[in-house]
Design a protein that fits this description.
The protein is globular. It has helices at residues 5-14, 21-39, 54-60, 113-124, and strands spanning 16-20, 45-49, 69-76, 88-91, 101-109, 129-138, 152-157, 162-163, 178-181. The model has no long low-confidence stretch (mean pLDDT 91). The protein has 185 residues and is of the alpha/beta class. Strand 5 (101-109), helix 4 and strand 6 form a beta-alpha-beta unit. The longest helix has 19 residues, at 21-39. The chain contains 4 helices and 9 strands, in the order αβαβαβββαββββ. The protein has a 6-stranded mixed beta sheet. A 3-stranded antiparallel beta sheet has the order 1-9-8.
């Protein structure tokens, strides 16, 4: 059933802008600099987590100044909803990363169940080391594991329902040029 576009437009009209496009771009530059400083000699396999990580990866990858192999994976708990459920694999990695360092690029570290499952999958499948880069780390104490932290974080934000730069509201507004919070959520 198609979404009620008037509701979708209203969400954006009422949303609070947490980070402007310029602020997000500065954060992406900082993440790129950190990755360039640490992974340039590691010959990593880089995986973009679809769909959320697509915009972040697209902005980040041209700023990485070393050779890498790129692929994608698609695992989700949301399936166009606003609350997570069981992990669902839509596409597992297709490039071999046995005995290689892996960099996973994703949009957000919220509770981290999906990211934790992807990290474990990569470790069990033979990665020598797994790094993670997220555009946003949400501030709260509900992480999947107390020690779950991204290797590289662009921005930290309050515990609200956010969208933009790859993150969605019910499948919409991934294309928003900035990071927004749904009013009241």
């Amino acid at each position: 059933m198609p979404a009620d576009l008037s509701h979708i437009r209203q969400i954006m009209a009422e949303a609070d802008c947490l980070f402007s496009e310029a602020q997000v771009e500065v954060a992406i530059d900082q993440v790129a600099a950190a990755i360039n400083g640490e992974l340039a000699e590691s010959n990593p396999v880089v995986f973009c987590v679809m769909n959320g990580g697509l915009i972040f990866a697209g902005k980040l990858l041209p700023k990485l100044s070393f050779p890498l192999e790129l692929s994608y994976l698609h695992a989700t708990r949301y399936r166009s909803e606003t609350t997570g459920g069981e992990l669902f694999w839509k596409a597992k990695p297709e490039i071999s990363f046995i005995d290689r360092e892996v960099l996973i690029i994703d949009d957000i570290l919220d509770e981290g169940h999906t990211l934790a499952a992807i990290i474990e999958f990569c470790k069990h499948a033979g990665a020598s080391k797994v790094h993670t880069a997220v555009l946003v780390d949400k501030d709260h104490d509900r992480k999947a594991r107390p020690d779950l932290k991204a290797s590289y974080v662009g921005l930290s934000c309050e515990d609200r329902f956010i969208f933009g730069y790859g993150m969605d509201y019910k499948g919409y507004w991934r294309n928003a040029a900035g990071i927004y919070a749904v009013k009241g959520l």
